[in-house]
Amino acid sequence: MDSCDRRIRAYKNGKTMEECKAIAESLNPGFKKQIDENKKILWTEILESVDHDELIYKLTLKFLRRDGYDIGNYKIPEVKAFNL
After folding, report:
1. What share of the chain is helix, strand, coil (3-state, %, to 5)?
2. Cross-strand pairs, 80
């Protein structure tokens, strides 16, 4: 039985998972700057910025959470810095 190799699978626009991760990482400094200036960024703004590519959107949120940002939830769909 043949199986798909996840490492080379093409996602939206023919990108691999590694390319999607690199794109998400490259977008995060801009989102962090916007969060610092405006205190928050809405999920819809991030989704529009990534051109409605769901995988890059989810990776972006994951990396923002990894970097210490509160990514909210379905009731509060916004990303903001933790209040320390």
Report:
1. 55, 10, 35
2. 70
